[in-house]
Amino acid sequence: MTAYEPTGAQDAAAAGHDLAYDAVVLAGGVARRLGGVDKPGVRVGGRPLLDRVLAACADARSTVVVAEPRPTARAVTWAREDPPGGGPLAALGAGLRHTTAEQVVVLSADLPFLDERTVRRLLAALGTSGADGALLTDADGRDQPLVAAYRAPVLRRELAALTRENDGLTGLPLRRLTGALGLTRVPDPVASFDCDTWDDIATARARIREHGHVLDEWISAVKDELGLDLDVDTKLLLDLARDAAHGVARPAAPLTTFLVGYAAAQARGGQGGPEAVAEASRKAAALALRWAEEAAQADAAPDATPDTSPDAG
């Protein structure tokens, strides 16, 4: 897979979009090509696929998951199409009933590489294009309508029309909806990668263990597992661990970073955040450097032990 890197202008637009949006995640499919396994619960990088997608839309005003309820890393609203298994349009209609924002992000639950930045880019593209929706395209240029941001009133209007024309939405393909919309497209072969087969799952699991991804993946997994909503300067902590290991002793690295985390948690009456982590890290790093300087001075100094032999003097 080749990563798609947005331009600076796209990043700037994504950073400035209106974050007032709702999210609808479709997680109730049968997953026949996976042998009927509960695909949203399959773990990639130690986290269920569904939780990975929920993390990508964590700043949504509300998030609706269309599926049978299950434990998730963050609280969501559960919905179900009637009858269950009625297809993506029926599921989308069921989820949309629980949303109120003017913009809605619609996602499938099998996107291992989706992240918050991609969601923001979709919303930015929707806001600047004037289109009815903004969707990702995959490595082959194919539309991915379940990795998209839409104008909610337009979706409701078109779904209502399809319901009248077909006496419901059950069994209707997504193209019956998207074919009536004006869409803008955002190429992203990585974030659009979905897991339909066990080979896809294996590919995703291998990719996140590549050198350039594994640390970020591990930090994200640990934060989810511990229920932490905290962004920290990873480089700062790594620099601290290096200084402690080199300036004091190798075991000092994990112990020092643990103590920094504990101190940050105790800061400001238990309300410490990224700033508290950075402050504690700077203090500990300065101490480690002082230890290293003293050790270097001691190694360079001549033997200062007094000579008490009988011949002295």
Automatic annotation (TrEMBL):
<dbReference type="InterPro" id="IPR025877">
    <property type="entry name" value="MobA-like_NTP_Trfase"/>
</dbReference>
<protein>
    <submittedName>
        <fullName>Molybdopterin-guanine dinucleotide biosynthesis protein</fullName>
    </submittedName>
</protein>
<dbReference type="InterPro" id="IPR013482">
    <property type="entry name" value="Molybde_CF_guanTrfase"/>
</dbReference>
<keyword id="KW-0460">Magnesium</keyword>
<keyword id="KW-0479">Metal-binding</keyword>
<feature type="region of interest" description="Disordered">
    <location>
        <begin position="294"/>
        <end position="313"/>
    </location>
</feature>
<keyword id="KW-0342">GTP-binding</keyword>
<keyword id="KW-0501">Molybdenum cofactor biosynthesis</keyword>
<dbReference type="GO" id="GO:0006777">
    <property type="term" value="P:Mo-molybdopterin cofactor biosynthetic process"/>
</dbReference>
<dbReference type="GO" id="GO:0046872">
    <property type="term" value="F:metal ion binding"/>
</dbReference>
<keyword id="KW-0808">Transferase</keyword>
<dbReference type="GO" id="GO:0016779">
    <property type="term" value="F:nucleotidyltransferase activity"/>
</dbReference>
<feature type="domain" description="MobA-like NTP transferase">
    <location>
        <begin position="23"/>
        <end position="166"/>
    </location>
</feature>
<dbReference type="InterPro" id="IPR045598">
    <property type="entry name" value="DUF6457"/>
</dbReference>
<dbReference type="Pfam" id="PF20058">
    <property type="entry name" value="DUF6457"/>
</dbReference>
<keyword id="KW-0963">Cytoplasm</keyword>
<dbReference type="GO" id="GO:0005525">
    <property type="term" value="F:GTP binding"/>
</dbReference>
<keyword id="KW-0547">Nucleotide-binding</keyword>
<dbReference type="Pfam" id="PF12804">
    <property type="entry name" value="NTP_transf_3"/>
</dbReference>
<dbReference type="InterPro" id="IPR029044">
    <property type="entry name" value="Nucleotide-diphossugar_trans"/>
</dbReference>
<feature type="domain" description="DUF6457">
    <location>
        <begin position="211"/>
        <end position="295"/>
    </location>
</feature>
